[in-house]
Design goal:
about 400 residues, alpha/beta, Aspartate Aminotransferase, domain 1, Aspartate Aminotransferase, domain 2, 2 domains, globular, binds pyridoxal-5'-phosphate
Length: about 400
């Protein structure tokens, strides 16, 4: 008897990391490794100069992508988590108060809890409604005389809903409060103009929507604010001094940088600038609407977050549950029977699940990317119909 062909695996976990990258990214990493392969700011030989150009060129490309006026204020980090930690730990002082949304990732709440214990930082959490929507007026109501910062995820990695960054940014600007945005789920898939949005600290990661390599990311800091470093060491500059240089970005970039990663990140950002983030957003929006429209009507399936008609207010991240089934069982069945990779559970965001009422079991999360196709979405819809029916 002829053996049944295994289905082609489908990757729907782009919120965790984009698996497929533009071919230019892989090519750039290989090219750097083969033909440059040295540190920047150290040697005056030719490859050293090329490494310098890569480090400056990547900053310039990121500045263009995020509308950052001063590229020296873009600090390389290994991911958004490190960017958020640098902003919180380098900025907040004993007795400061922070306002955050109830949809934040552990990348925000864990360092804040550490700072609460070590420095006496206080924080207030702004809740979301039953659809996971945040009301910008609640942020104003949560302010205290000692509020120094508002922390907001640009889009929830659980519901996919976009946050009211325009209104909260304007509030921060009016009140002289620093605005930290976690752009983990939006960088590369939603246009971001840090200046227009009054973002003071923009933390981003290279391996998700930017489609660059893992181990890359950054923190862009407005020139309105200063920040303490908490890692000191060799920077390739001011080598006569035993003190950490104070000029940006050197103050924050001690040690040898991730050049292979930066080479890939530069190629990824160039690809995004050429393709346009808006074109990527449109494609992901269409896939999300196609998915939502069909799964909304499945009996016994509960969608979390905003419905199909509200696609302008969300990214391509969709959480759902099937009545009477544990998310991990559903995720296992999707993978085993249909070859569909999703993420199940709490997605490193227990606070968000408490807020939307899915703690502790979590959800099954589908997250689509630029390289997914309509056909793959059709397969997922069919699979969910069969699973819900069973
Ligand atoms: C909203 C949000 N913040 C932070 C992170 C952490 O991302 P990274 O692992 O790249 O630091 C993620 C990704 O899981 C996320 O979705």
């Amino acid at each position: 008897m002829k053996k049944k062909k295994a289905p082609k695996p489908i990757y729907f976990d782009c919120a965790a990391t984009t698996r497929q990258k533009p071919p230019q990214v892989i090519k750039a990493v290989t090219l750097f490794a083969n033909e440059v392969g040295v540190s920047h700011g150290r040697g005056t030989y030719k490859p050293g100069i090329e490494a310098n150009e890569l480090v400056y060129g990547t900053r310039a490309a990121l500045a263009k992508l995020f509308h950052i006026q001063r590229s020296d204020r873009i600090l390389y980090m290994k991911n958004v988590t490190e960017g958020i930690n640098t902003a919180l730990k380098g900025f907040l002082k004993s007795g400061d108060h922070v306002v955050l949304s109830g949809l934040e990732h552990n990348a925000v709440i864990r360092p804040l809890n550490k700072l609460k214990a070590s420095r006496g930082i206080e924080y207030s959490i702004v809740p979301a409604n039953s659809l996971g929507r945040l009301n910008p007026y609640d942020f104003e109501k949560a302010l205290k005389p000692n509020t120094k910062m508002i922390c907001l995820t640009h889009a929830s990695n659980v519901t996919g809903n976009l946050s009211p960054v325009v209104e909260v940014g304007a509030l921060c600007s009016k009140k002289g409060i620093a605005f930290l945005v976690d752009a983990a789920q939006t960088a590369g898939v939603v246009p971001i103009d840090a200046q227009a949005l009054n973002i003071d600290f923009l933390a981003f990661t290279g391996h998700k929507g930017l489609m660059g390599p893992p181990g890359t990311g950054g923190l862009a800091v407005s020139s309105k604010w200063n920040l303490d470093s908490f890692i000191e060491g060799g920077t390739g500059s001011n080598s006569d001094s035993e003190e950490q240089p104070q000029q940006w970005p050197d103050k924050f970039e001690s040690g040898t940088q991730n050049y292979w990663g930066l080479a890939g990140l530069k190629a990824a950002v160039d690809f995004l600038l050429k393709t346009s983030v808006m074109a990527i957003r449109k494609k992901e929006e269409a896939l999300t609407v196609q998915f939502l429209k069909e799964v909304e009507g499945i009996k016994g399936l509960k969608l979390l977050g905003l419905p199909a008609g509200a696609e302008k207010e969300r990214v391509a991240v969709v959480s759902l549950n099937i009545e009477g089934r544990d998310p991990s069982e559903v995720g296992y069945e999707l993978d085993e029977k249909y070859g569909i990779m999703t993420r199940v559970g709490l997605h490193c965001a227990p606070l968000a699940h408490r807020t939307i009422g899915t703690y502790p079991i979590g959800t099954v999360r589908f997250s689509f990317g630029f390289y997914n196709t309509e056909k793959e979405i059709e397969t997922a819809i069919k699979a969910l119909k069969e699973i819900a029916k069973a």
